[in-house]
Amino acid sequence: MNLVDALAGEIGPRTAGSDAAAQAAETVAGAFRDLGLDVGFQEFHLLGYEADEPQLEVEGERWDAGPCMYAHTFDGEGAVRRIGVGKAPVGDGLLPSFAVVDAGGHEVARLLTSPFSTGAIPFMSSHTHITTPPTAFVSRADAERLVDGMRVRLKIGGRFVPGRIERNVIAEIPGRSDQHVVVGAHYDSVWHGPGAIDNASGVEGVRRIGEALAGRDLERSVRLVAFAAEEIKLTGSHYYVDELQLRGELDRVAGMVNLDCIAFGEQLNLLASPSALLERATELARSLGLLDRYELVTGPATGGVDSHWFATNQVPAVTVLHFPYDEYHLTGDVPALVDERQFEDAVALGLALVESQLSEPVVI
Ligand SMILES: [Zn+2]
Known about the structure:
Strand 2 (55-58) and strand 3 (61-63) form a beta hairpin. By secondary structure, the chain is α/β, with parallel strands linked by helices. 29% of the residues lie in helices and 32% in strands. The strands form two sheets. It has an eight-stranded mixed sheet, sandwiched between helices. It folds into two domains: 3-49 and 163-359, Aminopeptidase (3-Layer(aba) Sandwich), CATH 3.40.630.10; 55-157, Glucose Oxidase, domain 1. Helix 1 packs antiparallel against helix 4. It is globular, with a radius of gyration of 21 Å. The longest helix is centred in the C-terminal third of the chain and has 20 residues, at 340-359. Zinc ion is lined by residues 186, 198-199, 230, 260-261.
């Protein structure tokens, strides 16, 4: 079974808390069971959010807008006022932010610039779930057309949905010690996004690494984890690490390898902490010949990827990605994008990183 086709082709968009996400979790669990592994679900409660497509009119003209997850609602109008500019997470572009202000000069909504991709993508703001103001995303090209004083009509109509359940899918490959290396990838997708590259590819990568390791005599154990709800502020991996923390079991995790967007993208990204693990990852990439094939981008394991919570809790962690790509978070993120060479290279590197940490964990 290829999980890219199963998750992105057959199930399609699978936002956190949706029935499709539950179906995706079952599909991943089935694929892990097919490797002969014991599989469990780590369930957690979730306040869900159902986004509506934002309705945006600027100077009487309809513009594309992407929903900001967990935004509070708004239906009204005002004038554009630029409130500042942030740095793009990739490259050296800038991301302007705009307020929509009412006749009294009060901010009533926000228009943010999509940090990645070419279009107006679904994303989240830097605010947490409960404080996100009425917000929509515009494309970078449209952000450049926004000028102070322009008249805006905006409708943000998302709904908070209590009582949802989400689940991380966990499979164990037993080794000689209960110290283990976590190999993870998130299986959820964004609103309307089939998420073939982001991140059915990573989940299929975890499956392939599991297939390579199952049945082998391993010095330490391996835990395959398909994380839920990554697209809403890394919620599944956050829950996973918090549970280890409160049970006093975090020191059993010798290392973490995260795969996110591994089958199509412009550059090979290695995001690792501490620096000793980044050096090791870079050397492994070199020995596999990947530095001859790809431009390498490096950074810490923290930020918008599931390795974040491990790294911030002093677990050596690394994320492997090919990034960026134009279809990110859009309806065009479909299985046909998959470049099997990039895919296999990322899986080979992921496997080498797991093997290296199984025999010789990085010490923090
Ligand atoms: Zn992702």
